Amino acid sequence: MSISSVGVVGAGQMGNGIAHVMALAGYDVMLNDISQDSLDKAMGVITRNLDRQVSSEKISAEEKVAAIGRIKTTLDLPELGQTDLVIEAATENETVKNKIFEALLPHLKPETILTSNTSSISITRLASRTDRPEKFMGFHFMNPVPVMKLVELIRGIATDEATYKECLSVVENLGKTAASAEDFPAFIVNRILMPMINEAVYTLYEGVGSVKSIDESMKLGAAHPMGPLELADFIGLDTCLAIMNVLHDGLADTKYRPCPLLTKYVEAGWLGRKTKRGFYDYR
Ligand code: CAA
To answer: NAD: present as a keyword of the record (predicted)?
Structure first.
């Protein structure tokens, strides 16, 4: 089977980035969300991000127009059933993801590969709730999707080799590099990145440094493109907390205990850039 069409569930920051890179690589994309407003916003973001790539001569104006022409938006999830590859990129919440798969499964072609962009949830467990665990895997992009070169490919216990190879060839067609990860909590990137971010929050919580000094230390002292607190705001503090909880529950080790300050910010609704307040104030 050769993949030519891709369904993307969820038009948020990951979903719209995935639709962007897939369309630019020549795939027909069907982008789904539950509100027209989210779909309209996503098309606005995709257009602006493609414009940035045209301005910096990474792509031509013709390639931009062609990419936009390959993206169809829909509020009707079953419409994605005819695509060859589905990437679920909804909220990092297992119940929400299971409900999406349940609603989609009756409409899926038998050969369609079903994947999740989950950043931490067990692929084996998500797959077990579907009718195709052998055709199910983790397809994890990094944010911002059009810029970051890596995709983690995570095989569940039942994922077959053909499915892995199809997904690998899609990653290569995107011009990205795949890292193959085993299905353990938070896989590779977030297993390493999130404890660092959590430790930065502890460093703030314990008064070792200010937000500015922590971020500057890691930017200037360790050559990170963003400080850990700035990066947490960029990713979303709710996502960071959800991933720490998956690590803590899944590996049963207190070294993954989420910092109480991270929990408090999430409880306050200070989720970072998306709510205009996190460790920084964006209002
Ligand atoms: N779409 C297209 N292009 C984009 C873009 C987007 N969304 N965002 C940035 N760019 C482009 C810019 O146009 C610019 O291009 P040129 O160099 O050609 O001019 C380039 O990327 C750099 O952007 P900026 O000049 O605006 O800003 P910057 O140099 O500060 O870089 C950044 C921004 C790329 C986000 C950089 O700060 C960075 O790499 N940060 C770290 C991001 C990171 O760690 N991501 C992983 C998060 S973890 C994750 O995603 C996994 C998870 O599950 C939570």
So the answer is: yes
